[in-house]
Amino acid sequence: MDKLIVKGGNRLTGTVKTSGAKNAVLPIIAGSILGETPSRLDEIPQLEDVKTICGVLEYLGVKIDSSEDHALTMDTRSITAYEAPYELVHSMRASFVVMGPLLARVGHARISQPGGCAIGSRPIDLHLKGFELLGAKITQDHGFIEATAPQGLKGADIYLDFPSVGATENIMMAACLAEGTTTLENPAEEPEIVDLANYLNQMGAHVRGAGTDVIRIEGVKHMHGSDHTVIPDRIEAGTYMIGAAMTHGDVIIENVLVEHQKPLLAKLREAGVTIEEDIDRIHVTCPGELKAINIKTMPYPGFPTDMQAQMMAMMTICRGRSTVMETVFENRFMHVVELNRMGASIETTGARGALIEGPAKLTGCEVNATDLRAGAAMVLAGLVAEGKTVIGNLHHIDRGYENLVGKLQSLGADIQRIKVQE
Length: 422
Ligand code: EPZ
Prior knowledge:
By secondary structure, the chain is an alpha/beta fold. It has helices at residues 22-31, 48-59, 86-89, 99-106, 125-133, 165-175, 191-202, 234-246, 262-270, 308-315, 334-341, 372-384, 395-400, 404-410, and strands at residues 2-7, 13-17, 39-42, 63-65, 71-75, 83-84, 108-112, 137-141, 144-148, 157-159, 181-185, 206-208, 214-218, 227-229, 250-254, 274-277, 281-285, 294-297, 320-326, 345-349, 353-358, 366-368, 388-392, 414-419. It has a 4-stranded mixed beta sheet, with helices on one face. A 4-stranded mixed beta sheet has the order 2-15-17-16. Strands 4-5-3-14 form a 4-stranded mixed beta sheet, with helices on one face.
């Protein structure tokens, strides 16, 4: 088992390059199933979650060449299975996003029911409602969800009660090979949805309106593979921006699509952070004291829930009373206890609200990552805490941050990864 050792007090200075977006690459890898010829994907981040979903596709018969750094070739000419087993799906619930493309391509999909996780129950009712409206028959037994459409899928008008990212991706991919037109109302509008739609259209699909509040998909009979370069990870980039602000550093984040960062940039500026925007890079400095701010997480283009934990770490050292309202997930405050153990002054108000009094004097101690973004928040807090912070449960962090230690070390952080005897 590994642990991170972070010694607080160093300013982050220098340049760091953002990797490809985890939350774009996972549905895009799944979407390659729709193509009857190979695809080549570039800017693939080296993450555990990418290895997991590649394992699922290889189980289904896809041949994957990952010999080249940050690239994948997906040979999807023959799909030889329609079932994704528990041992592959349970470690990453996002594997469920293979159901839509598999159902569309082979007319049958049997996926182990994805469990909940630390941040919430993570239901899939909206995914299943969409598949049924497209004509699939859904059954649930022995912990599996099975969808069949022996006569193929038919276009439909679908309204999502909540703009679910995963449901939007799954339904959009299923609709690509349906007969007729599908209208998806109230879809997720995240940049990762747009990136997926661009890849699907490069494969011969007809998807229009991704990134808006109505997506229209005209079904086609066949799709082919395509080359695609994945967009940069806006959450990874945002995490380094907050690290620069908290340490009063001077950091340039490269490979950033500034238009994807608007809500975070607005909040950082409100807190007194200096942000200079360039075409594909952002320069972050924070000469003065950080000021308290209020955030409310919302579906895109609102403030991203995936930045909530990291922002809360910053709020612990902002002067004044900050507030957080988490509207997307029902249990995304696990980092509160861990931050309070480091000396933060955070009080939760119900399951979705938190009050943060600052600036607190954070001191290093033993903490654990409870989920991916909470783990990032602990690292950020460790960068400014007095003394040594030891962070466990690193598998959460490995899922979503490529080379976190190396990137932070290159910015001057005192951070090491050590092996600890079980
Ligand atoms: C995606 O998860 C991301 N994961 C999450 O990032 C992100 O936090 C989330 O979108 C919201 O932006 C990937 O893209 C792999 P949702 P997803 O379906 O698709 C409810 C990270 O840290 N809901 O938009 O699972 C659900 O309970 C991860 O990178 C239903 O009620 O999120 C939740 O409250 C964490 N029924 C809300 O919608 C459904 O059928 C948002 O979920 C589906 C969802």
